[in-house]
Each structure stands twice: as structure tokens, then as C-alpha cells.
Amino acid sequence: xxxxxxxxxxxxxxxxxxxxxVSMALRDHPRVAPETRxxxxxxxxxQGYTPxxxxxxxxxxxxxxxxxKEEPVIAILNGQKRPLKELSKDTLLVREGAKKRAEDLGFKxxxxxLQEPGMRLQRVVQILQTRGIHGLVVLPVESLNDVFSLxxxxxxxxxxxxxxxxxxxxxxxxxxxxxxxxxxxxxTEKGFERIGLCxxxxxxxRSNHLYQSYLLWHQQNIPEANRVQPLYQDNITKEDLIAWVxxxxxxxxxxxxxxxxxxxxxxxxxxxxxISFAALSxxxxxxxxxxxxxxxxxxxxxxxxxxxxxxxxxxxxxPTDNPAVTLIRGEWKDGASVRKTRKTAAA
Length: 347
Description:
Blueprint: H1 8-15, H2 19-26, H3 34-47, H4 53-67, E1 73-78, H5 89-104, E2 108-113, H6 121-130, E3 135-138, E4 156-159, E5 170-174, H7 176-189, E6 195-200, H8 201-206, H9 210-219, E7 231-233, H10 238-248, E8 252-255, H11 259-266, E9 276-280, E10 291-294, H12 297-313, E11 325-328, E12 331-333, H13 342-346
Parallel strand pairs: 1-2, 1-3, 3-4, 4-5, 5-11, 6-7, 6-8, 8-9, 9-10
Antiparallel strand pairs: 10-12
Helix pairs in contact: 1-2, 1-3, 2-3, 5-12, 7-9
């Protein structure tokens, strides 16, 4: 006599419930009472039931398509005090990359400003929960003061900056240490000896202090006479920059802010004849005029959606025990703002 293969039907018959109830209980669906879930799981173990992984994946897909005829929604969260239109260009590029990738994958995206006047975080959470929105992409924040807390058991999120690490979400952000390495290595190979770094406190925090970490390592391995004290303060004005250049005499300025390039020219410096300039991970996509370590901010947003999609497909909501960090590498792009190498000039 052939033994009957355990299935949702055989478990349902033994438990006196419907097959749908069995399916939901085995997935720990909250609509099934805890006592019923426990009893159904005991019966399933007694019968030796094991799910078919291929069928499970198919049913997961079908359930998602049947829940709603509309495209699923991913929330893009702005935790800064500034509204969307006033956010930095790099943040807007991250958002554009996320929205484009989400659209390609069949998702809708909606923006939520967590610090909108008259709006409380609890209200945003209530809206997300009511509408069944579980996937979140957190745009870069400027400081720890912009980091918020969410009831993580209801959401799966991806943060696009290191500052938001305390959220407990997976992260996608620039590889700051590698980008600094790329910038200084290329400038060193071109013959520059006195490399000056300009950095605001906000930029330093967003890099997790990794720009300065690499600079410190670099300066410990060059003659003391070639070490330029970095220009590091809360806000850098044109006057601050020019005074620092006159005081420290760098032969190249490395800065995340491309305004510094134009300030040097406005002050009468011939770039690159008098002094060179290279941009460190700037929010620009143009090439040719300004040498730069280019980071794909759109790629950061797109990768965040890819990470989130994988988690949502497996219905993995709630806090992540060991959040993964995906680092987007920087790439050197030559530009007219950096003089030619000594070898080329000598030739």
C-alpha cells in the first residue's frame, strides 16, 4: 500500500481547517491565531511534511500578483530638514537612480518627507502601514540628528549613506576610503607632492571620517615638508579657501565641492598652471573640464532597489541581525584642471 504524501490537504483534514489556513499557518501569517498555528505545525511535523521550494516560490509570486492589480510601492524617505527640491545634487541623483530602477522592475515609488511641517514620524509610519508599503529606501542624511527610528518588524529598508547605519537596514553608499585612495594615488603618479584636502564637517561625517583616515595614512608615508594641513571646518567660504591656499601652498587642491575650482579661478589663479584642482566624488556627471574621482550616485540608488527587491521577494521583513554594506567604487577621470604628468611634459 502506497503511503499518502503529506500535503496541505492532508494536514487540513487532520486539523479540521481549510487548506488556506494551513498555508497561512505554515508561513506564520498573523491572521491565524498562535494556538492554531502551533497545532497545525505539530501535525505537519508528525506527517513529515516538507514544502516544495519551487511551488513555494510560485505561490509567493502569485499571491503578490493577486493581492492588488496595482504596481507594488516602494517608499523613498527624506529624513533631512530640507524638502526634496532643496536637497543636494548627489542625493537627488541617488533618488533618480532608485526611481528609474524601481520603474524598470515594475514598482512604483512615492516620496515621504519625514520632517515636513505639521507631519510627525508616527503619522508617516501609520500611512505606510495602512497602505501596506513595506519596502523603504532611505535617502542620504546630513548628520546623526536626521536619523530616525521605525518599527522595524513592519518594514524592510535600505539606507543610501553610512550615517543612517544605526537604522539597522542594509546599506549602499560610496566606497569613501577607496575613492580617496584613487584620488591621491592618481595625483601622486602625476608628480604632485603637496596635496591639499578641503572638507566640511558635514562631508567628513557623511564619509564616516574615511577621507581623513586615508589622508592621515598617506601623510605618514611622505616627507613632513610635503604635508599640507587640510582645510577642515563647519563651513568653507571663498575667503577661507584662498587664505588656506596662500598659507599652505598646495600644488593641487582635492575637494568634494566643485565651487572651489571656480573660486580659485575667480581669485586669479591659473588652473592648472599655478595650481591644479581635482574633485573628490562630486555630484557631477560631466567629464573633461574638471578632473575627478567619479562615483555613480545613480548606481547607488539603483543598487539599493536591487537589494530591497531581493529581500521583499522572500518576504524578509523586520530587523537585520547583521546588515550588509554594498560599497560603490570611485573611478578616476582625467580633466583639464590637472596639469599633465611630468613624464608627458618632459617628452
